[in-house]
Every structure is written in C-alpha cells, then in structure tokens.
Amino acid sequence: MYISKELADLMEQSEIDYMIDRMKAIQERPGNPMGIDIQTFGGAAAFYSQAMPWPQFNTVKGIGEQEADRLDEILEFYRKRQGRCQFEVVPSKTHPKLMKALFDQGYY
Predict the structure, then answer these.
(1) What is the enclosing helix (H) or strand (E) of 41?
(2) Pairing relation of β-strands 86-88 and 44-49?
(3) Dist. CA 1–CA 39, nearest whole Å
(4) DSSP-derived 3-state class of residue 47
(5) What is the DSSP letter of 29?
(6) How many CA atoms lie within 13 A of 23 on its CB side?
(7) For the chain, what is the total number of helices (H) and then of strands (E)?
(8) Sheet bearing 86-88, strands edge to edge
C-alpha cells in the first residue's frame, strides 16, 4: 500500500498535535512537577520532561531538511535542561542534508 507524502505529513502532524496536547496537560499541573517543556523549531517540535526520562517524552518530531540547519539549536534546548533526546524522522522527510547533520552529531 502506498501512502502519499501529503497523507504522511497529515499523520505526522496529527501525532505532533496529540503530543503537544498531552504534554501541555501534564505541564499545567500545579508547579509543573514533571518539568515539561516544549519548543518548536520550524516544523519540528521538541518535547522534554525532566521527571520522565523515557524517549517518548524526550523526542523531536516533525524534523526534516528545513530544520537541518537548526540542529544545534535543538540540541542546545536539551543541553540546557541536561536532557537526552531522540529524533523521529519519518521516511518522507529523510534528506541527505538532515541525515548527515544527525550523523555528524552522533545520531545514527
């Protein structure tokens, strides 16, 4: 079965929107006890949780070629919080520039 780029983009955006809603709901608890932070970088969304170190709460979604030049900013977002992250790159957004930038930072 073939999925068009447009459908893949819609599915990814739906997942990003869900994750933003979920993380904001946790963040809005009095005092933000899970240490949630969310920041966008172009089309990419970076999710961070101090108290939940698992990858699903510390991940970058929506990253593509356009964000390759912002990789240092994204990594700095996590460095400032002393956190680790993972990158979720959907196949339709892979590009040599992005993949090389990730590889150069030790992500492969």
Answers:
(1) strand 36-41
(2) unpaired
(3) 34
(4) strand
(5) S
(6) 23
(7) 3, 4
(8) 36-41, 44-49, 59-61, 86-88
pLDDT in tens, 53-68: 888 899 999 999 999 9
Q: Which amino acid is present at 43?
A: G
Residues 94 and 68: beta-carbon distance below 8 Å: no
What's the rounded Cα separation, in Å, for the pair 108 and 99? 8
Q: Token pair for residue 86?
A: 């993972």
Element (H or E) spanning 16, and its range?
helix 5-27
Amino acid at 102: L
DSSP code, position 54:
S
Q: Cα separation of 98 and 56, whole Å?
A: 21
CA dist., res. 21 & res. 38, Å (int): 11
**Predicted confidence (pLDDT) per residue in 32-86, tens digit:** 999 999 999 999 999 999 999 888 899 999 999 999 999 999 999 999 999 889 9
